[in-house]
Every structure is written in structure tokens, then in C-alpha cells.
Design brief:
mainly alpha; 58% helix
């Protein structure tokens, strides 16, 4: 009995969605707007304790300070540090060789067979 009810409900929903897709865009927009208003009215009529909780907003202190001057300064300093480190490695003749646009560090070269043994 329950399976039949669920099956019938599923078929009814699929048919309703198919018919909705067949409607012209303006009519579908009006239908969606009416359905949205009906849902909001239904939710407004629900008792407060049974209504699903709304998403909580973050407290101001939890927000990321992406647009602050301090964050921008820190990002600039970090970028300069990285650039300077790379320049020093290039100037000091690091073990990294460049093959076209691919970096080939010496660490990736094959080792002698006796060094590959784990024990």
C-alpha cells in the first residue's frame, strides 16, 4: 500500500514538472512566482516552534578581513618575500634547472640503486 502511494506521488510530481517545462517562459515565471508566494504564506502561518531554523549570519568578528588595508599589506609583504626568495635561489645557482617551461630540480634525478633500498 505504502509503495503504491509513493510510486503514485513520484509519477504525479514527474508529470507536473514535465507539464511545467512545456509552458512558455513568461507563463512558467508567473507560475513559479505564485508558487513561491503560496509557500511563503504557508510558512508565515506555521507556528514558530515547528518552522525550520533560518541560516544564522556570521558575527562581525568572524568575517574575513579581505578588504582591509592590513590584510592587503600582509599579502604584499608575503608576495615580496616569495619573490625575493626565488630571486636569491636563482642568483645563488640553486639545483633547479629549467627545461623549457618545466623546472627540473636535482632532487628528482634518479639515485644510485643502493640508495633506493628502504632498509
Amino acid at each position: 500500500m505504502l509503495e503504491t502511494v509513493l510510486w503514485g506521488t513520484g509519477v504525479a510530481v514527474c508529470v507536473a514538472l514535465l507539464l511545467r517545462d512545456l509552458l512558455p517562459a513568461p507563463t512558467r515565471a508567473r507560475l513559479d512566482g505564485r508558487a513561491s508566494h503560496a509557500w511563503q504564506a504557508l510558512r508565515a502561518g506555521m507556528p514558530r516552534r515547528t518552522r525550520a531554523p533560518r541560516a544564522t549570519r556570521r558575527a562581525p568578528q568572524e568575517k574575513a578581513d579581505v578588504n582591509t588595508r592590513q590584510a592587503q599589506r600582509e599579502a604584499e609583504l608575503e608576495a615580496r618575500d616569495v619573490i625575493d626568495r626565488v630571486r636569491r635561489q636563482v642568483r645563488d645557482g640553486s639545483s633547479t634547472k629549467r627545461d623549457g617551461n618545466v623546472y627540473r630540480p636535482d632532487a628528482f634525478k634518479s639515485r644510485p640503486p643502493e640508495q633506493d633500498k628502504p632498509h
